Amino acid sequence: MTGLARVAGRGLVRTFGAGATAVHALAGVDIEGHASELTVVTGPSGSGKTTLLNLLGGLDRPTAGHVVLDDGRVLSELPEAEVLATRRARIGYVFQSFGLIPVLSAAENVEVPLRLALTDPRERDERVATMLERVGLARHARQRPYELSGGQQQRVGVARALVGRPDILIADEPTGQLDSDTAATIMDLIVHLTHELGIATIVSTHDPLLIERADRVLRLHDGVVDANGGGRTPTD
Ligand SMILES: Nc1ncnc2c1ncn2[C@@H]1O[C@H](COP(=O)(O)OP(=O)(O)OP(=O)(O)O)[C@@H](O)[C@H]1O
């Protein structure tokens, strides 16, 4: 392990419901996300990938265990307002279904996090333009999601996730709805931006090509790390 993890899950347990019908989505998982590294969480459907990413991204809280940030704070125990402030300042999210607002243009979708953060309008415009350029969509700024291909929509999703300059990126099956060629270009983009911007990226995926490019791979099975693949780097 190199250096302090930017975000780490320690002994994460997440149980939904109680009693006989309780679902043990995660049953004690450790994970680390490091600067400039791609951490991939993989495993069969229902193994707990989304649940784990939601905990790391501060979208849900564990039943037991902790999510710890590199500044020493325990994200999973902060008051809700502080979790929200931390999410806005430090964490970007990419979703399988893109999650774009249909009535807004590509540029307006990318601008949403900056509006929420009350960024100065002129700076907003500059940062949106720079980010659209970075994801190769400068010429599509005014188009609405329905006028864009799936791959282009996910590029907007990536731009929106990164426009606030987060240092942690959480991407839940970001290529799950894309054909394989388009998926490859989105993967390239995510891998490239992870290294270029020094982001700690944590991605869930079934895609063997993305797993191959990971710096760390965590294989989940029924809410626990698979004994044959837990926390190792692909080169171990
Ligand atoms: N809010 C919830 N309430 C009850 N059970 C839930 C909830 N969220 C997830 N689960 C259950 O927890 C388990 C893990 O689900 P999760 O969505 O994390 O798996 P996954 O690996 O992301 O699956 P997929 O690859 O299909 O997206 C599943 O059995 C699921 O049904």
UniProtKB/TrEMBL annotation:
Q: What is this protein called?
A: ABC transporter
The species is: Tessaracoccus flavus
Gene Ontology MF: a single term: ATP hydrolysis activity
Q: Which PANTHER family match?
A: ABC TRANSPORTER RELATED, IMPORT ATP-BINDING PROTEIN
Please provide an example of a Pfam family that matches this protein in its UniProt record: ABC_tran
User: Under the cellular component aspect of Gene Ontology, which terms does the record hold?
Assistant: plasma membrane
Q: Which InterPro entries match?
A: AAA+_ATPase, ABC_transporter-like_ATP-bd, ABC_transporter-like_CS, ABC_transpr_LolD-like, MacB-like_ATP-bd, P-loop_NTPase
Q: Which PROSITE patterns match?
A: ABC_TRANSPORTER_1, ABC_TRANSPORTER_2
For this UniProt record, the keywords arranged alphabetically read as follows: ATP-binding, Nucleotide-binding, Transport
Keyword check for Nucleotide-binding, yes or no: yes
KW Membrane (keyword) present: no
